[in-house]
Amino acid sequence: MSPRIKINRKVLNPPIIKGMKPFGKELNIKNEPINLLYEEYEALRLCDYDMLNHNQASMMMGVSRPTFTRIYGSALQKIAKAFVEGRQIIIEGGKVFFDSDWYHCKTCGCYFNNPIKDVPINFCPLCKSENFTKFNNDNEFISCESCNDICICPNCSFEQKHQKGIPCKNQMCPNCNIPMTRKVF
Q: Measured between alpha carbons, how far is 172 from 72 in angstroms, rounded to an integer?
C-alpha cells in the first residue's frame, strides 16, 4: 500500500530567523543541527505564542486536528533534543505554502494576492486598475459595508441575502439542494 499523499500546510508568515545556535563554555557544535520544519515552527507559533488550542490552530493550518497534534509533538521533541544535547536548530523545509494578502479588483473582478509582502500593491496585475479592495482575516471585504450581497441558486434562481463569513458555495438551495453561488450585479 502506498503512503498517503501529504497535503501542503498553510503557514501565515515565514519565520523571521533561519535558526538558533546554542552558546556556552562547553559548547560542542560538532553535532549535526536539528532541522525544524516550517510546519513545526508554525504549530509552535500558533499554540505557544498565539495561545490557540489544537483545534483552532489546525483550522489555521488547513490540516486535521490529529495531524496538527503530530506536527506539534514532533516540534516539541526536536526542540527538547536540541536543548538537552546542545545542538543547533535550523528552520527550513516541509511541504508548506505561505499565506499572503489577497485583493479583489472592482474593475475587472479578478482576485489576486501579494506574495512579496514587502512590496505594496498599487494596481491590479490584470487590468492595471487602482480600484481594488483588500480582504481582511475573516475573508470579508474591508471597504464593502454597504454591499447588497446576494446568494443565488444557479438551477432555480432562488435568492437569499448573503451571510457574512459563510461562502455561498457552502449554503444549499432550499428548493434544489445544490450549492449556491454569488449573484453578480
A: 36
Q: How many domains does the chain contain in total?
A: 2
7-54 tens-digit pLDDT: 778 887 778 888 998 887 666 556 789 999 999 999 999 999 999 999
Where do we find the cell 438551495?
Answer: 173
pTM of the shown model: 0.55
Q: Say if 65 falls within a structural domain.
A: yes
170 in any annotated domain: yes
Range of the domain at 179: 148-185
Q: How many CB atoms lie within 10 A of CB 40?
A: 23
Give the count of beta carbons closer than 10 Å to the beta carbon of residue 113: 13
pLDDT in tens, 134-183: 754 333 333 333 345 788 887 788 888 877 667 777 788 888 888 887 77
Q: Within a domain: residue 109?
A: no
Are both 15 and 89 inside the same structural domain? yes
Measured between alpha carbons, how far is 23 from 167 in angstroms, rounded to an integer?
50
What are the angstrom distances between the C-alpha of 185 and each of 67, 106, 132, 167? 42, 12, 17, 17
In a domain, 113, yes or no: no
DSSP state of 3: P
